[in-house]
Design the sequence.
């Protein structure tokens, strides 16, 4: 594992697209059930888990659907869409007996808790999974940046980004057959090479707080548990030296 030690607490970042499965939009029930089973296995292994979820399966502030809408308003619409995904994940997790709380950066008391750092930490310490909704609560910031921010605030040992592919490549592996997968990268290399892992703000925040980012495929059943144990395929991004992988 990138940290060289047993992971005590991790933040799992899921894109909204990860919840679509093979659908064009929305939530795929089979995919959702597989993801929450994987989360349950990690939780039952004694690892404390918190999460940030995107909304690309519903609405993105920079998407084609947002054209003609003021950017700040479009971003707020995207933040509200993350709440839908978070509530779906909470429901699916609690259906398999995993205690879960949703906290939103945009207060909506009738739907979920407001984000309060000390309360979130207490939930995690009591063995509950906390899902952070509403991004950072501010427009012009992505849910990737929210993930780095919450991972820092929750003093996580690592930020695990679940995607459609099993790591970071030098080109889109779904389009380029000869795309090379990196085993290890530094934060500096990600920024210098302009690799589309997370936005620059998210990478910079993780670098400043020395939180390793691990990119893996959430579509592979059991991959989350493997990565937490340092097994399987993934790409590690940290402050260390770039390996030849």
Sequence:
């Amino acid at each position: 594992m990138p940290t060289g030690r047993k992971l005590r607490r991790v933040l799992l970042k899921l894109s909204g697209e990860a919840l679509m499965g093979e659908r064009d939009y929305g939530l795929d029930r089979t995919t959702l059930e597989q993801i929450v089973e994987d989360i349950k296995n990690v939780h039952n292994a004694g690892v404390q888990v918190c999460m940030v979820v995107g909304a690309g399966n519903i609405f993105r502030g920079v998407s084609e659907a947002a054209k003609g809408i003021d950017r700040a308003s479009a971003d707020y619409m995207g933040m509200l869409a993350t709440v839908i995904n978070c509530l779906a994940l909470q429901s699916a997790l609690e259906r398999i007996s995993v205690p879960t709380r949703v906290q939103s950066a945009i207060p909506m008391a009738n739907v979920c808790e407001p984000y309060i750092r000390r309360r979130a930490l207490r939930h995690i310490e009591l063995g509950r999974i906390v899902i952070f909704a509403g991004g950072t609560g501010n427009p012009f910031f992505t849910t990737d940046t929210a993930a780095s921010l919450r991972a820092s605030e929750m003093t996580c040992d690592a930020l695990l980004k679940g995607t459609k592919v099993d790591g970071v490549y030098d080109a889109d592996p779904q389009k380029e057959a000869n795309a090379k997968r990196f085993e290890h990268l530094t934060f500096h290399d990600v920024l210098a090479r302009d690799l589309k892992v997370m936005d620059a703000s998210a990478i910079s925040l993780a670098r400043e707080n020395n939180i390793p980012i691990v990119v893996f495929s959430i579509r592979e059943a059991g991959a989350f548990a493997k990565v937490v144990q340092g097994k399987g395929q993934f790409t590690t991004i940290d402050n260390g030296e770039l390996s030849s992988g």
Summary: The two ends are 15 Å apart (CA to CA). The chain is about 35% helix and 20% strand. The domain at 9-238 is CATH 3.40.1160.10 (Carbamate kinase).
